[in-house]
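The protein record filed below.
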Amino acid sequence: MLGFFRTNQITANFLLILYVVLVRSAIFIFPQDWEPVSSGLFSDGVYRLVGASGLWPAVLAAVLVFVQAVLVNSLVAKFRIANEITYFPGVFYVLLSSSIPEFHYLSPALMANTFYILAFYELFHTYKKLSAASWLFNLGLWLSIASLFYFSYIIFILFALIGVGVLRAFRLKEQIMILCGYAVPYYLTWVYYFWIEDLGTFYTSFSGQIGMLTFAEGSNWGIFIKLAFIGVFLLIAITSFGIYKQKKNIQVQKYISILFWALLVSALSLFFQEKIALEHLLILTPPLGILISFNFLHFENRQIAEAVHLMLLLLAFVFQFYPFVMG
């Protein structure tokens, strides 16, 4: 199956659509009622329009994952981060962001990932640019919008400041540009709620989501196994850091470092978010999907890469269908 995506032909997008439907098929075969544990102002607005569970939210979630996968592929190709241009980054983003049932819903974290990925575009554009004001402003803007969908993304303002420091010499003026871009969505949202005389909703939407190491789900073996599944990918990425940077120019090495900074800052979100559920792990999938795709590009034996991918796909199906088949 991986061989179909080892290409840069745009027609592979049709195969990517089928791949998204395949790995997220459980939610269409066995639909379940679901409600978000933590939701931002913008995601609440989406739920008022389409609901949180049912056919249309599931379809919208699948469409979002496909769009995000296309953005991930475009990001890696545009900035030449991988040794060759393929659809692997998008494929492994889809696999990771669809691997467990909790990822299949139209969660606030999934919606926020769209703007999180766009922020990488803006950040990478700033490398060696004499004037980067528009990209820096947009970097803050996209991350701010993401946090209005899911509060945990508020920590990524730190990622933005660090990322610019990795790519460019420190300039206070540029850091302020990022903060200005970050402030605009919050200010406009505040103005809207002031206009409709409902500032209480604006303030409580944030105060109700602030917490530290509080979890929405109890402990059981199923949760630990799912955490271990994602944890293995994290361990593979961390131990492959040196391999990723081999035979890469300085620019690409800096981009890869930024992907690891994104993973590190993601861990800090545990200290800001109230009632963390398993879908919170979606915050890891954009940088992690890109990094894991590099491992599969480095496989010398393509048959082994194919076999490992099929094994991961099978494990994802076990997670998704086991409760319904055995229940």
